[in-house]
Amino acid sequence: MGRLFLREFDQPIPDYLMCGSCQTPIALPEDFYCFSPDEVGVYGLVFQDRERRIINVLVDKAVRHRQVGGNKVADIYCIKCGEELGWKYIEADGAQLFIRDGMVQLRKDKVLRRHGDLIINGEAREAVQYHILY
């Protein structure tokens, strides 16, 4: 196996989402939001709305794609420890207006947020922005 090269965010004060197992940086919190503050557990998910970068992750190859609620998705894993962190939408069925091809969902129970010297659980309200849908 080759040498592992991890990328970092260039920030004076660290503020990023990271793998809950090995604390490898994976994304910036401002690129993610949650639709309901009451969502918890496995299905309490964080969505990526914009075409921003996610670093230090692997996306399943096409032969491993699966269906989730009518959408074709590929699982996303931490490049350092191999922990499954969420999935990327390959083909969205259009039934949900806020889900589009290329969008990423991270499981809140699998990520942490580093905010300066603090480490915040991914399921805490402070981890990401909330958008309430009615």
Key features?
mainly beta, single chain, 8-stranded mixed sheet, 4-stranded antiparallel sheet, Metal Binding Protein, Guanine Nucleotide Exchange Factor, Chain A, 39% strand, 134 residues
Could you describe the 3D structure shown?
The protein is mainly β. It contains no helices and twelve strands. The protein has one domain: Metal Binding Protein, Guanine Nucleotide Exchange Factor, Chain A (Beta Complex), CATH 2.170.150.20. The strands form two sheets. Strands 3, 4, 5, 6, 7, 8, 9 and 12 form an eight-stranded mixed beta sheet that branches. A four-stranded antiparallel beta sheet has the order 2-1-10-11, with no helix packed on it. It is globular and about 40 Å long.
Distance between the termini: 49 Å
Largest sheet: 8 strands, mixed
Helical residues, percent = under 10%
Class, according to the CATH hierarchy?
Answer: Mainly Beta
Going by CATH, the architecture would be Beta Complex
User: What spatial form do the alpha-carbon principal axes imply?
Assistant: globular
Task: From the alpha carbons, calculate the radius of gyration and give it in angstroms.
Answer: 15 Å
User: Counting H and I runs of at least 4 residues, what is the number of helices?
Assistant: 0
Structural class: mainly beta
Mean pLDDT metric: 79
Total beta strands: 12
What is the N-to-C succession of helices and strands?
Answer: EEEEEEEEEEEE
Protein name: Protein yippee-like
Keywords: Metal-binding, Zinc
GO molecular function: metal ion binding
Organism: Sesamum indicum (Oriental sesame)
